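Quick question about two entries, pasted in order.
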Amino acid sequence: MKTIDNYLPTEDFDELCKLIMWNHSFPFFLGEGVAEGENIGADFNNWYASHVLGADNKIFSLLNFKVKVLLRLKVNFYPHTDQIYEHKPHVDYDFNNKAALLSLNTCDGFTRLHDGTKVDSIANRLLLFDGHESHNSSTTTNASGRWNININYWDNGGSYVDTVEATGNRVRSA
């Protein structure tokens, strides 16, 4: 696990946020439950909205994130709730993969990793972790919503090799 604060230059980060947050022309799709097997039922806090993208778009270009194989690029929105709602743990994929999570806003929401580490949602913070290990998300109480971008990828042509390294304020594969 690694966090990189101020991952993107301010100008690029601001442009990224304008493309996604509160942009009426950027569609989101509602999901019932965040983790597999969850559903809303009587608990109306257990929903989120997302938008899955491909690699050929302006958002991925602005991220300046180089990988060997992109598995998924997804924008997430978790709604404001009166109390923090911590979603059930899940894995992104049940095979070896790397995950990068870029927070688009600062709020009291967080991501909890398999070992209990809690990583706060801070605007322009990039979290790097193993996407095949259990983790969970949360809602927020002090913002209108929690926004992030989730990238799942393989390094080194599909084999799991931890070669992502920080270079200045950017991340690239070695």
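Here is the second entry:
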Amino acid sequence: MTPREQLDAVITYARAIGCVVRGVDHAAGAVELSCPDVQRKVDLLNGIAAVSAEDPYVAATALHLRQAWPNDAELAIHLAAWVAEAVRWIDEPGERFQLAGVTLRSRTGDCDCSAVVVVALLLALGLEAEVRGYVDAHGEGIHACGAVKLDGRWYHCEATNRNVSFGDDPARLLERGTIQ
């Protein structure tokens, strides 16, 4: 699937789950969307990760990382740290969503972008992974993080801060102000 086809698939899925398309930038591989609630936004991010996992560039990156860390647990630990190092966090205007390959190439994105990259890389390697969303006291979405299932247990893969340990609970990190 070409990047344009990937983005079109994301747009179709976004509309199917009730998100509103505000703008599309096919050249940049990004779309501006508004989702009616946090759960649909998380569903959308998981859809973007699933589509992105099929991108040859994402798959090649995942295989490169797999060669360095053949054990699933070591891979997950180092993959989250690698994404935190590789992707510079930026505050994006509005709700802009981009494919994992776009984030990997540009090396910039917000928490949504980093979470999608982590999950897409893990999915490309056949691991069970998902994007999880976090809300504030008012129910507003404030953070997204990847998670991976290893040996029947879920682990958080925070990729917006290099000083966070694998498995740290994003809700606690948000409370302490460790992540944004």
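Reply: The first helix runs from residue 3 to 16. The chain has a mean pLDDT of 89. Hope that helps.
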